[in-house]
Amino acid sequence: MTKKDRYKYCLKYFQQNMPNAETELIYDNPFQLLVAVVLSAQCTDKRVNLTTPALFERFPNPDILSKASVEEVFLYIKSISYPNNKAKHLVGLGKALVEKFGGQVPLTINELITIPGVGRKTANVITSVLDNQPNMAVDTHVFRVSARIGLTTNAKTPLAAEKQLIANIPKQLVHIAHHWLILHGRYVCLARTPKCEECGISACCKFYAKHCMN
Ligand code: SF4
């Protein structure tokens, strides 16, 4: 199967079987999504969703967050990975939104990456989720799943994988393909023991052809 065929096959499968895939982070507005995505680095969405209700109640907008102490924010997020750094980032994030962006979450990568705690991956998530921009955030799931299926070849870094995926996925599907690959990695193509026998795209998977077929 050619690479082009792999893309065609798995994108069609996902379109048919996961037409409404979306982020599992719970949020009500762009500010809350940005905070949740920053918190989700090296942490599960499930854990973030347990933490954010109280956090959002105490710090409902960028202005209030910008005036908070790092110590108080820490108390709300201490069960999340890297709470010290993330507490600092969140206060800085509140300040940046208020001082540079009028309290709004900007929707360009270049603006987003100036905000504390926001790197390229987070900026890609924000712009694709909030604005359907054709940006691909490559996290650990996307990186692993894409390589196993054979959608990426010899991609050594997330950025290399991102470039290959963007070059091959039709522009209008990039924003949802991000969720397809994440959810497939989270529930089927698990890191240690991929559930190949119940996987709907095994027919186009390079890993399956190499390791699971007699
Ligand atoms: S066949 Fe296995 S390795 Fe390939 S995508 Fe499915 S679960 Fe992952």
From TrEMBL:
Note the Pfam families from the entry. Answer: HHH, HhH-GPD
What superkingdom does the record give? Answer: Bacteria
Q: Which Gene3D superfamilies match?
A: Helix-hairpin-Helix base-excision DNA repair enzymes (C-terminal), Hypothetical protein, domain 2
Tell me the enzyme class. Answer: lyase
Which organism encodes this protein? Polluticaenibacter yanchengensis
Its cofactor is: [4Fe-4S] cluster
Alphabetic keyword roster: 4Fe-4S, DNA damage, DNA repair, DNA-binding, Endonuclease, Glycosidase, Hydrolase, Iron, Iron-sulfur, Lyase, Metal-binding, Nuclease
Q: Which family does it belong to?
A: Belongs to the Nth/MutY family.
**Protein's UniProt name:** Endonuclease III
User: What PROSITE patterns does the database record attribute to this sequence?
Assistant: ENDONUCLEASE_III_2 (PS01155)
